[in-house]
Amino acid sequence: MKKNVVEQKANLYNSKNCDSRSDFIYSEQKFYSRYSWCLNPYPKVSQVMDFIRIEAKDLEKIEGSWQINESIMTIFSLACAVSCATDDFLNKKRYGQFSLKSLQQWRIRWEDTIALLLDSSLAKTSIDMNTCQKSALELADLSRADFPTKLLNQAVTTPRAFRCQDLTPYDVLTLSKKYCEENTNKNSPILIIGLRSAGSYFAPVLRADLAKRGYTNINTVTLRPKKGASRNEKETIQKFTKQDGSVIIIDEPIYVGLTLKICIKILDELGVQRQSVNVLFPLHPCATDLNKTEALSALKGCNFITSSPDEYYKFGKLRKATVEKQLEEYFFARDYKKVSLISDANVHKFNKTLSNQSENSWTEHLKRVYGVQLERQSGEIETQYIIAKSVGWGWQSYRKFFAANCLKDFVPSILGLRDGILYSEWIDDSANSAKEIDRNKIVESVSEYIASRVKGLSFEEDPSSFISEAQVGMLLVYRNHSTTLLGRITNRLKIDAFRYKLSTLTCLSPCLIDGNMRIADWLQRDLELVKTDYAQHGLGKIEVNVTDPAYDLANSILSFEMSEQEETDLLQRYMSISGDMEVIERITLYKVLTGIQTMQSFGKIHDDKLSSRHQEYSDDFIKAWTFTMIQLARYTASFVPKLVVKSPFKTIVVSDVDGVIDQHIIGIPSNTPSGIQALSLLHSNGYPIVLNTARSVYDVKEYCKAYGFMGGIAESGSYIWDAATDKEKILVSEETLTKIERVKLALEQIPGVFTNPYYRYSIKAFRYGESITGTIPVSTKLINSVLVQCGAEELFVHQTGTDTAVLSPGIDKGTGMIALLQLLDCSTCDTIAIGDTEPDLSMFRVANRSYAPSHTNVRSAAIQIGCHVVNKPFQKGLLEIVRHIIHTDGGKAQLDEKPSFKQKEHNKILFDILSDVEKSKPRRLSEAIFNKDLFGAFKNYFL
Prior knowledge:
Number of strands: 27
CATH class of the domain at 640-716 and 814-888: Alpha Beta
Largest sheet: 8 strands, mixed
Shape: globular
Radius of gyration: 31 Å
Strand content: 5-15%
CATH superfamily of the domain at 640-716 and 814-888: HAD superfamily/HAD-like
Strand order of the largest sheet: 19-18-17-16-13-25-26-27
């Protein structure tokens, strides 16, 4: 695969100083290859101690200034990770508390040794190697102490500042300098309060720099304000309040400001005077206006010092002169003799493309495109375009090296990695161009790409089983919330138990997954697919935190809108390459999770800075919503036997979908165990089912294929379809369709109004709200004004809780039902209609029998028509209806017999979520209290 691309690279980069396998120069290949452990951003404390000992031992052997600096920074950041984990451990409430005095004393020595390391390196103009080596070896010695097993098994955390916010320890020096310019009394006591996790890394740097500048009385403490201050932390702060000194709070960029607000409140309660408080933090490029945060109100009376994004250390590293010097090293190693940066029309165009693609997010890295004019030894001149992108700091950036090596056939050609900046080829291609690639090629490339990650980026120990960061699976609980007191208590218990349950899920091939397989990150190069942004989204504070490649496969199926056959081909090819034969048993859960995760992006629609991309985000939301809904339908349908009785039929059941077969669970319509049992009883007793719904044509066809239904009426009577023959009929006139299209285009021109692209013969218009379902209806006044404007006043408008439907006049579920029965040649059949809302009344009127579950909002009108309203709601009501139908018709089947729901652990998680909604509140609370997973979570946390 990609032979022509590989040969082109080998010819271009053929040099003894350049590793042609990976395109990294030899010095980088040699240095970074030592850090294979860096793939896991959440190593355990015991592992970090091992890394520190290895790095300290090797420090004296390392040659080259940048290599020495990187090694020192690795030791520093690993040591700070241990500090953070130790402070969290010391301040954790636990039962059976043992003496921690020796650990507290060890922690002080550890901090002092970190200060010595920084004093001899970061805080000096040149590195004092003797002192550096001495302090590194001292850290190694301290790492051999006798630690509690619980601490050693704790995963460390790395701040977003170093991982995805383009910050470095040098940015702390910028803040320190500004503080010193405003506070010149070097004898005044200083208490540095670092807000964990970032504060565990920032505070030692600030302490070392202040000491270098002559400040003599410095103490430090770290806090995790949202957890409250521990007794020791309070004592440290209260002791300081008796002195006439300065408090310095230091943290990473402020997002909302809540953590800082809580910290200031703690200081207020401990008697710290606000005029003595200085708050230091960098400003993030997407949050330079503090008026939009809670920071200004929280900091009232305090002094705060900030640094702007253009003062970032990495911002300076992207200046032309610095980049040109770095590129000289890379290209000279590739036998070029002259390297010059140019600024032509293409450079401006490519950087504008980057700007347009920006989402103004907290995880978006600094990046810039440069034009490079190169002269070969032969005198031949050529131009290349290179993108320099920040990818983290220190060892947190090294995983990009391993990912680039492993995926060299699938990613842009690499020049090198230095100072946390990756230099690679710029591919001039439009976003979403991957859609133009042959579909078979897409399946081939994606399957091979994911399988390559499994083979080359695997974990010996799965970190997702012990990290503290929330996994994407937690969305299943967060979206299934309750507003009642009993419901909130139950949900709180379930959150802890569910987090533990997710941590116990097994995967035979855990690896550093991509985590973001969106089609926009796949570009064309020589008719091949090339993946960009390939190493940042699998694990991290706000990432998916999944190590199962099934997530990437599911994400690809969604992003590329793969058909069922393409999905089958993708999985088969992946399994044949990776050997992961059990992925089929795991992928359903990850299909649901990737859909929900994608839906979370609807919040971007409220960002005015991204207004040009609001339609794109809306389309992504609807696509993900529909995908997740269909996957849940396929999952629940797998328990329902297909109808075995052939036509002609005596009786046909015509059913609505929403509120009857489905109800909203985790914010998505889905069936439940009672609904599954009801449909199973109908099919096993020979009752064919057709759908009559406001859902789209696509939805109806997918549900019919999944459950084995005979066909359906879509878009509230606008369209009918026979599943057996694939015959269809549009019941809306051409003239009306023209008006509907005109209204749709007019609505889409209104800012903040969107339409569902799956609807072809009617309109579903909506705005975006704040709820988990995402959408809300358009106002009646606005929709009516658009109808008048378009000369389409006769179109019918129906408002629901989530959207506004615009329909053809004279068409409803009743007319659609009559037309479908004619298409199926079943006009004389006994028809049984099941529905729950006002539009269903029209089909009740033309059916021989009709039923509604107890939650119906048209009870009186339905009863007047002769509808039988049962005692139970939703799918429990459907099951009651089905039992009544079979009993009334003289059926002799076991009406209480349930389908077999036995399944593997991943699917059982889904089933438990779908089952939970049908349980009483007391039962849910009881099960939450006596859940074995809750005990596991309790034991993990407290013991």
